Amino acid sequence: MSELSNITEGAGLMTNGQPDSPKTQRRMSLPKNWGRCLLILVPYIWLLVLFLVPFIIVVKISLSDTAIAMPPYVPTFAWSEGWTGFWNMISGWDLENFTWLMEDDLYWKSYLSSLEIAVVSSLLALLIGYPIAYSMARAPSEWRPTLLMLIILPFWTSFLIRVYAWIGILKKEGLLNMALMHLGIIDDPLTILNTDIAVYIGIVYSYLPFMVLPLYSSLEKMDDSLLEAATDLGCSPFKAFWLITVPLSMPGILAGCFLVFIPAVGEFVIPDLLGGSNTLMIGKTLWVEFFSNRDWPVASAVAVILLILLVVPIVLFQRQQEKQQEKGA
Amino acid sequence: MRRFSFFNASALTLGFAFLYLPIVLLIIFSFNESRLVTVWGGFSTKWYSAVFANKGFMDAAWVTVRVGLVSATLATILGTMAALVLVRAGRFPGKTLFSGMVYAPLVMPEVITGLSLLLLFVSLDFDRGFWTVILAHVTFSMCYSAVVISSRLVTFDMSLEEAAMDLGASRMATFFQITVPIILPSIVSAWLLSFTLSLDDLVIASFTSGPGATTLPMKIYSQVRLGVTPEINALSTILVVLVSTGVIAASLLTKRREVQRRREERAAVAGG
Amino acid sequence: MNGSPNSGSGCNFAPWSDPKEKPLIRFDAVTKKFGDFVAIDNLNLKIYEREFFALLGPSGCGKTTLMRMLAGFEQPTMGSIMMRQQHLTDIPPHRRPVNMMFQSYALFPHMSVEQNIAFGLKQEKRPKAEIKDRVEEMIALVQLQAFAKRKPHQLSGGQRQRVALARSLAKKPKLLLLDEPLGALDRKLREQTQFELMTIQEKLGTTFVIVTHDQEEAMTVASRIALMDQGKLVQVSTPREIYETPNSRYVADFLGDVNIIGGHILGPDDKEDDIVQLAWHEDYAPLRIRLPQPVSFPEKGTERWVAVRPEKVRITKEYPTDTHNILKGKVLDIAYTGNISTYHVETEDGQIIKSQEANLEHLHRRAITWDDEVYVHWRAGGCVLLER
């Protein structure tokens, strides 16, 4: 209040003349900017050091050669050697690992089969997820929060445990075979575990919530009167679904497919636990290269190429998300 | 009032059966007397005793909980800061890079994140163990936290902060007395998300951990590779039940509050 | 006509017409740009103590920006804002003796009514007892004693509005800003609350600046109205002046309904020398407009407009006597709004003139109906001559 009284008391002293020439008033409060800098710098530096720099190191090591040492690659960089050491390191770099990846068809096949598995599982997840999301969106409104929670709940429980649960079901003497044989559908147990089929099941199962959620959110927003208008104008309900519902849920379909495809490409746990020895997926190849063969430079090269493969879908996904946001805004 | 159609009801039943049957079977067979996982040999809780008697499991669980608590807390603080930077800090040089670094870990394959962090720790000559796992977990969890909190901040009514400043609160006071209490639910969910992410992580922990810092997923993984065992079923059941109870309780609580709130709003309008 | 407690109650409150009076707030050549967009364009304005000052204008005219500059949420790009002798622009929002009542009310959802009202006092670290007394006083002022412990979501719209008002007044601000304070209330409640606002303002003697797009609200509550358009002040006057003697077609059209006819000055009337004649159509008699006394006559031939409010236009079937301006036409349309009827009359040259009549009798006995030949007419003193 003191400020206030100062202002009012000072009033009498003021002359009725012209005020000071109009001048630009720019207030720069120091603490605010200081706080802002700190706020930006802390997470920025954290991410630089623990996300970007590690990445640059991966690229660097992918250009190095394998060695039987610790760390198992040359050339390494010693701080004591200063700039010469740095130049020595750079001159020791080559694309040998990448040539190696080109020549050995194991890697090519891993990449291709990862992409194939990811594409097929995304489509399977879409086929299974769409009816679920559609039914959720058309469920009585008091049911929807519960259904939504039931979809999200598996996401909170351990991924590893959910994949593990399928082993007991899919293996030769597992629950599925037992049930099928008991019902007399098959006579001999099916080999599902350690095949690509098990991998598809595992991926679809694990990533189904990622498909259902965006589908649900785009279907739920849809105005019922659109379908009523379509049938009023002579569409059969089925045709109305194809001409109205599906096109309008396209953003959800795209988002869902990206959300399944992107993590599936680099998946390790599922092919390792459910897949067989001839299930090739790049995440598993990288893991083996790193932990079993201890070939760090090749593992890094595999990582670099995996990332390059993922850049396109990630950028497409981002674009699509931004477009949606702009539309929403 | 809308009702379930036959198609909707069957799609939902089949869908949720697919999602939940494996877990339900796993839980049922954790109470199986027989060591043969697929043959029912009578009800027993002996595998649970076996889990609690297994020092390896218990040690790993303790490591996991400590890693989870520390990394979730750090990740929430850093994530809140990152969210504020994304939503409130306006333009600054390198903002595009920053938002790229926040969103990239969300879509980055775990094997790459794990490998790159490992290579960082090796080249810095860090001893791998408890703290390196925490650093790794904070790094990816903070990005999830940032996304959760920033989506709340985007819809934050700025006039609330302006009102606080107008009434004499400094920037700091406004942040802690107004902004934080109002976005608290999203901060809590960011913490819970970070904690479960840390609890579940196998791949990144495998890369960044060292001797003496085996987390529970790593322990489970090494056992699972040898085949299905009833102990693992029992351990999995414990974890699933713990997490599900937590999540369901939290969402019921939120829902009840919401219902209460809506009732009060209606009463206020009717009475006013 | 003027409902303001200050100027209407006979105490002759008009500090703006007293050259010795010092303004509380003074805008000097204030410009505010957002990028290339000029929100406030070289604006000068004085607001006096104890005024209830209304900023009126269409959305995007800059009235909210002007208010936010007073609160300190925006800084002027050029020019200065003074409060008495102090540059307001030097003071950050949380140190200004200015409080604001937000359009959304901006009540803190996690605090009770009491806590909301106490918030500003607590920031000043006042003694607990003093805060308690002041909060009680404010709660009593807005008559919310029964609701002190409630959270905002447990209140109705009208109650929230009162809490917001009490909260913004708790610190005894020198200046209270009200951003569309009644916009969220329904019509009945809004009218009632307008009078409450006026009572409270008169009681406390605080200077109020209200932003509104509702001209009736501005007319009801304000001692003076500033009508804004595209970042500029178009007219700053009392409600009576701004309605009766608008300074432009824009003002006349913005406030209430109006008929505007363009023409050229012909010269003074032969009988009454304070009446000017305006030629508006070659086949018809010129219009006659009485000018306010101290105004010099415009030159012959200059372009001018005449504005006449529909309620000042009479409509009759017989040729009227004892009036200045008479136009013949046909009833095109009748808008019946219960208390009044508005007749749209097309004159012989195609001009539409609106005339309002109070519905003194039941509708079925109305004398004039569609397609009737009628005369619309108004007195020279009932219309104004506009320069632009």
Main attributes of the structure:
heterotrimer; A: 329 residues; mainly alpha; MetI-like fold; two-stranded antiparallel sheet; 15 helices; globular; disordered N terminus; C: 388 residues; alpha+beta; Rossmann fold; OB fold (Dihydrolipoamide Acetyltransferase, E2P); 2 domains; 5-stranded antiparallel β-sheet; 20 strands; 23% helix; transport (chain B)
Explain the overall architecture.
Chain C: It comes from Cohaesibacter marisflavi. Chain C: This is Spermidine/putrescine import ATP-binding protein PotA. Chain C: The complex is composed of two ATP-binding proteins (PotA), two transmembrane proteins (PotB and PotC) and a solute-binding protein (PotD). The complex is a heterotrimer of chains A (329), B (272) and C (388). Chain A has 329 residues and is mainly α. Chain A has 15 helices and 2 strands. Chain A has helices spanning 2-9, 30-62, 82-91, 96-103, 105-137, 144-156, 159-170, 175-182, 196-220, 224-232, 237-248, 250-265, 269-274, 282-292, 296-328; strands at residues 65-66, 73-74. A two-stranded antiparallel ribbon of chain A has the order 1-2. The two termini of chain A are 43 Å apart. Chain B has one domain (33-266): MetI-like (MetI-like fold), CATH 1.10.3720.10. Chain C is an alpha+beta fold and 388 residues long. Chain C folds into 2 domains: 15-97 and 173-252, 3-Layer(aba) Sandwich (Rossmann fold), CATH 3.40.50.300; 258-386, OB fold (Dihydrolipoamide Acetyltransferase, E2P) (Beta Barrel), CATH 2.40.50. Chain C contains 9 helices and 20 strands. In chain C, helix 4 (128-141) crosses helix 5. Residues 1-10 of chain C have low confidence and may be disordered. The chains are: A mainly alpha (329), B mainly alpha (272), C alpha+beta (388). Chains A and B meet through helix 2, helix 5, helix 6, helix 7 and helix 9 of A and helix 1, helix 3, helix 4, helix 5 and helix 6 of B.
